[in-house]
Amino acid sequence: MNGQGGLAEETPEAFETLSEVLRWRSATQPGMRAFTFLADGEKESGHLTYAELDRRARSLAAMLQGMGMQGERAVLLYPSGLDFLCAFLGCLYAGAVAVPVAAAQPRQKGAYSRLVSVIGNARPRLVLTVSSLLPRMQPAMETEPALASLAWLATDEVDPDLEESWRDPGVDGRALAMLQYTSGSTSTPKGVMVSHANLVHNTSLIREAFGFVGSEVCVSWLPLHHDMGLIGTTLNSLYHGVPCVFMPPLAFLQRPVRWLRAISRYRGTISGGPNFGYELCMSRIGPEQLAGLDLRSWRVAFNGSEPIRDATLEQFAAAFAPSGFRKESLYPCYGMAEATLLVTGNFPQRGPKVQAVDAAALACNRVVPADGSAAGESVRTVVSSGRVWAGMEVVIVDPETCESCPEGCVGEIWVTGPSVAQGYWSQPEETRRSFGAHLAGHPGGGPWLRTGDLGFLSDGELFVTGRLKDMIIIAGRNYYPQDIELVVEECHPAVRQGCSAAFSVEGESGEQLVVVAEVGRVIGSLDEVKTLIRRAVAEHYDLRAADVALVSPGGVPKTTSGKVQRSACRAAYLGNELPVAGLSPVEGVLSAQPGVATVAG
Questions:
Q1: Helix-helix angle 275-284:310-320, to 10 degrees
Q2: Distance between CA atoms of residues 305 and 218, nearest Å
Q3: Is the pLDDT of residue 151 over 80?
Q4: Which of 129-143, 278-292, 324-338 has the highest mean pLDDT?
């Protein structure tokens, strides 16, 4: 639908853009509350109906149109909140290209490096933000030429009467809607070119995969600049016309119980996040906080964005069963920014499917079922990320020969379908390499997206085993870093969960294993922790750790979405830039020694 007429369609599938969906909902459900924001994770600090959201989006769009922003890039620099949603949709209404970026913390070393990197690549004309953030950004604008050269607009000060000046830009599904910058877990962040058609297809795909019904309520703590928080929850809620309650990520990180209390209070049915979010709940929510918690409404507890651990799923289900949580609600899934978001997902209300395989065979890229009964047999459990949905296709490929692998073999995951984005902004060579792949012997097929992820297919379901770039190869054997990290994190209570990195470095005798682990409060000595880590790695993998580096909390680099950046950690290790942990002999508490933590966005 283009132009200003034709609002009588009854389903969102009739539209090519999300801005058309919002206009339709504003006309047919004007008073329905679309979004509710909990600024502190507990109390309502604001909400928007579809009509209010439409008016604010049109007002901003009218101003952007007056500035000639159609087809131009606009950086969205916001704290989590309703202003971000209005700005994002205002860009879509104006035909501008939204570029969401995390609002940096000024006290962090290199706080603005990611923002400057994104601006250097995207080359926007404008930065959209809120008036409360402008004073905080002033020092950065004075020291960073890339920031000083841009126009800045506080969207909370835009005249609401401008809504009448808005004109439909006439864009269709082929037009570029946003640049979604990748997390940079294995490389420099790249701007994924996501079209309006990509957004509509993926939100429709999520509806089918999650089994949406009319009474859903979404609850989220995920960052809005990240694809899982933006597309998986907020835009998904808009597309399907269901209420969305959300809070800032920091509110959840400070007190994880706020997430579960919001689900309980608002009768949330769809909510989730990366694996570490579930682990944080288990480690930080005590029995005394379960009183009054009712999780019976939680129907889809999605888990994606990083390796999914079977133990986490089992323990979370058991820990919150007294509050009404059902294991069948756990929903492992797989996706990436390059495919807009979701590619595969579990069957709703089935519960996780786990497969035990021989670890030694897996190291040789073979999938051999195992039950652990054989003497000396090492077993690894892998979690299914579900089936492929809504017109998407997945194939497992030998990354060296580009030949498709038979079932039972591990290879690189390749993806094609309507959700696959248009490529990387201003990086034609990288776009051709990643988005223009063709299977050997099938030059006319595709093109395929090379994900860089490793996995296998079994009975039509995808099992993700690791990252191609993160793979550790020592003495001709393959080792998955997340497996080593799990063993490390379980060997001593001082080692922080989800905060270790395993990688290899070149030594005199070839590649050698290095383990970096964050440690909290230690009773005893750091040498004892290191000894236990070395012993655990040796016992589980017959592998010697050439070095074990213990660092202070926050010392392992992570992306803004919580993924461990192993390549950045390796670079910091080689450059002696890790904040080495030291033990106070009096208090027995770790303190950071001189060093620099390179925590990248």
A1: 40
A2: 18
A3: yes
A4: 324-338
In whole angstroms, give the CA distance from residue 385 to residue 407: 16
Other beta carbons within 10 Å of 149? 9
Q: By CB neighbour count within 10 A (0-12 exposed, 13-18 middle, 19+ buried), where does 425 fall?
A: buried
Distance CA 227, CA 183 (A): 10
| Structure tokens, 260 | 């579960």
Q: What is the DSSP string of 123-192?
A: --SEEEE-TTTHHHHHHHHHH-HHHHTSEEEEGGGS-GGGGGG-------TTSEEEEEE---SSSS--EE
Q: What is the pLDDT of residue 600?
A: 26
| Residue 134 neighbours by CB distance under 10 Å | 15
Whole-angstrom CA distances from 69 to 66, 288, 387, 587 are: 8, 53, 40, 58
Q: What is the 3-state secondary structure (H, E, C) of 182-202?
A: CCCCCCCCCEEEEEHHHHHHH
Q: Is 532 exposed, middle or buried (0-12, 13-18, 19+ CB in 10 A)?
A: middle
- Amino acid identity of residue 490, one-letter, is E
Any residues with CB less than 8 A from the CB of 338 and at least 6 apart, and which?
182, 192, 415, 420, 421, 434, 435, 449, 451
Question: Mean pLDDT throughout 80-98?
Answer: 98
343-383 pLDDT, tens per residue? 999 999 999 999 999 888 888 889 999 875 554 458 889 99
Backbone angles phi, psi at 524, to 5 degrees: 120, -145
Residue that has been written with the tokens 């029995």 in this structure? 287
DSSP annotation of 481: H
User: Tens of pLDDT along 523-560?
Assistant: 678 888 999 999 999 888 888 999 999 998 989 988 76
Task: Count helices and strands (H / E) in the chain.
Answer: 18, 28
| Predicted local confidence at residue 402, as pLDDT | 94
In whole angstroms, what is the distance from residue 144 CA to residue 167 CA? 36
The length of the chain in residues reads 601
**pLDDT tens-digit profile of 316-332?**
999 999 999 999 999 99
Average pLDDT over residues 240-266: 97
Kindly report the number of other CB atoms within 10 A of residue 160's CB atom.
11
DSSP 518-537: EE---SS-HHHHHHHHHHHH
Look at residue 5 and tell me whether its pLDDT is greater than 70: no
Task: Please choose, from the candidates 553, 552, 513, the residue with its C-alpha nearest in 3D space to the C-alpha of residue 536.
Answer: 513
Q: What is the per-residue pLDDT for 588?
A: 27
In 3D space, the residue among 561, 589, 565 whose CA is nearest the CA of residue 578 turns out to be: 565
Rg for the chain, CA atoms, rounded: 24
